[in-house]
Amino acid sequence: TNVFPSTCASFSFFFFTVVDQLPPEEKLTKTLEKAAYYRKKKNGDYCIYMLVRASTLCSLLDQRSDRQYSTRRANIHAQLAEVYLQVQGFPRQAEDHSKKSLSFLPPESAEYSGASSPDDDNQPSPEGVRMTALLWLGKAFVMQKKFSAADRTLTQAVRAQRLCMQSTGSCDVDLLVLMEIARSKARCGLKRNDEALEVLSEALTRCQELVEKNDPRLADLHIQYGYISFLFANFYFVCVRKN
Predict the structure, then answer these.
(1) Phi, psi of 242 (to 5 degrees)
(2) How far is 162 from 166, CA to CA, in rounded Å?
(3) Alpha carbon of 107 to those of 120, 151, 225: distances in Å?
(4) For residue 64, what are the contacts with CB-CB under 8 A and spacing of at least 6?
(5) Residue 169: left if φ>0, alpha if ψ -120 to 50, beta else—which one?
(6) Handedness of CA 102, 108, 111, 112 (dihedral sign)
(7) Which has the closest alpha carbon to 187: 178, 177, 198?
(8) How far apart are CA 242 and CA 35, in angstroms?
């Protein structure tokens, strides 16, 4: 259940008094712009309010129009998952919205077979939305210590990212770093530290091909690698002492 501050009621009356006068498509665009604004300001409550409103608008537009809004709705729920996880710190709600996002997408085989999206060209591709939804779902599992589910989901996310890169020719390095760090945490949670280090090593190799050598995102991977190496070394030391 979504719970918003009481001030949202006053704000929504003011905002939608103006926006409700616009055509439905423009109304949706303005609502998503406002959601992006509040996401940038890290105002999770208002951002969630706007995204929920946008999802409702998509549902109404889908009923009134010949166009299909499934990819847009999937993207909105992927954004809701991100806000709940990264801003609010609520992994259970993030899990729910990630799964809902995936439910709006076509089967993966249809997605990557070159089938075009029914939504307009300015919207994210289904494969890109799938990748982000799987990322937030995997991170939500990690936060809930569901490490086996997290490992499976994040492995799917990496596969989706590679297929997305093949189809678009570009790579979101920020998401790639988040994905691989989360996957390494899942492997650590499963007591497979050596595999976690392999994940990070491969990620460093990939990222070094995509960014400059002093890019700060590489530092995030190095820090995680060092942390897991430290844990692994301590575990090995304790085992040696016990024997």
Answers:
(1) -65, -30
(2) 6
(3) 19, 21, 35
(4) 24
(5) left
(6) positive
(7) 198
(8) 55
How far, in Å, CA of 25 to CA of 148, rounded?
41
Q: Could you give phi then psi for residue 31, rounded to 5 degrees?
A: -65, -40
Q: What is the pLDDT along the chain (243 residues), one digit of tens a residue?
A: 454 555 555 555 455 555 666 777 888 999 999 999 999 999 999 999 999 999 999 888 878 765 678 889 999 999 999 999 999 999 999 999 999 999 999 877 555 444 444 445 556 788 889 999 999 999 999 999 999 999 999 999 999 988 888 877 778 899 999 999 999 999 999 999 889 999 999 999 989 888 888 888 899 998 998 888 887 665 443 333 444
Tokens of 108: 């993966």
Q: Kindly state the tokens that stand for 191.
A: 């007591």
**Residue 188 token pair:** 């650590």
Amino acid residing at 123: Q
Instruction: Give the tokens for residue 56.
Output: 């409702």
* DSSP conformation class of 138: H
* Residue whose entry in the numeric block shows the structure tokens 């988040």: 178
Q: Which phi and psi angles does 47 have, rounded to 5°? A: -60, -45
